[in-house]
Write a structure and sequence with these properties.
The chain is an alpha/beta fold. The chain contains 14 helices and nine strands.
């Protein structure tokens, strides 16, 4: 892509709308082959950005979902021990006498189980999504630090495998903990704010073209109001879309207080937040 404007246009074709800052960050990530570190509240579109980039580039999306305790064997590669054992038994049954040769065959490429990180290194073009890196342990962060610096990995039995062209890498963090500065320094950083009314409305209209304009405006306005409340989990764009979709599924072309309260579970996921919203929604609907 030739510049941020083209990035913006290509992403818009997929239904993902970006502002100037994010369009520029994406362009630089593509041009400089630098990972893009996306941080912000859940539901603001970080993961969806990776999917949109993959669609815009016509590339497969390879996703690594991080969690506590994830390690290299789950993220990079592993050996298929059951198949290796079957091979060993088959060799014994066939009367193989060259033990060194049989042992070397056990670590043939056909017994390698390729995990997301290695698949991304060997696939071009591809978009690698490392989702919720803040859930992983410090040790895994350190491992990623090396891999994202060199875009290569050494497998003792096979040698060093290096990406001919680095994949497009998107890391996301919900900031449940601070990710180390060393990893961030390897990346371009972008903080995801909740979008303003106009942009969020445009996203809803783009994602849900069948929803009435009135309903889209009301839901967007209500979510913006809810975000101003002191909620445990402010709703993201994903919840705005879910709420509008739920109301549309009920045949609503606009929303009143009764319908809004009945469908509150589409947008708020904590009892305390729902109770607080019940006090704020009637007044908000008068202005919507």
């Amino acid at each position: 892509m030739d510049g941020p404007e083209e990035v913006r246009a290509r992403l818009a074709e997929t239904g993902y709308l970006v502002d100037d800052g994010l369009a520029t960050a994406c362009f630089l990530a593509l041009r400089l082959h630098r990972p893009l570190f996306c941080e912000g509240d859940a539901g603001v579109g970080k993961t969806a950005l990776a999917a949109a980039l993959a669609e815009a580039l016509g590339a497969p999306l390879i996703r690594l979902q991080c969690h506590e305790g994830i390690d290299a064997s789950q993220a990079l590669y592993d050996w298929d021990f059951p198949r290796q054992l079957l091979h060993l038994r088959a060799a014994e049954a066939a009367g193989a006498v060259d033990a060194e040769r049989v042992e070397s065959e056990l670590y043939d490429r056909r017994f390698l189980v390729v995990r997301p990180l290695l698949r991304a290194l060997e696939t071009w073009p591809s978009v690698l999504l490392i989702d919720e890196i803040d859930r992983a342990d410090d040790e895994f962060e350190a491992f990623l630090l090396e891999l994202l610096s060199e875009f290569s990995v050494t497998i003792p039995e096979l040698g060093t495998l290096r990406a001919e062209v680095p994949p497009v890498v998107v890391l996301t963090s919900n900031r449940t903990r601070e990710v180390h500065d060393a990893l961030k320094r390897r990346c371009l950083y972008h903080w995801f704010e909740h979008p303003g009314f106009d942009r969020e409305l445009a996203i809803v209209r783009r994602r849900l073209p069948g929803v009435s304009a009135r309903l889209a405006e009301q839901v967007t306005g209500l979510v913006q109001t809810l975000r101003a409340e002191d909620l445990l989990k402010p709703p993201g764009v994903a919840e705005t879309i879910d709420w509008a979709e739920a109301l549309d599924a009920l045949g609503a072309s606009e929303v009143d207080a009764e319908l809004a309260l009945a469908t509150l579970g589409s947008v708020l996921k904590y009892r305390e937040d729902a109770e607080r919203a019940r006090g704020a929604l009637p007044a908000a609907l008068k202005d919507a």
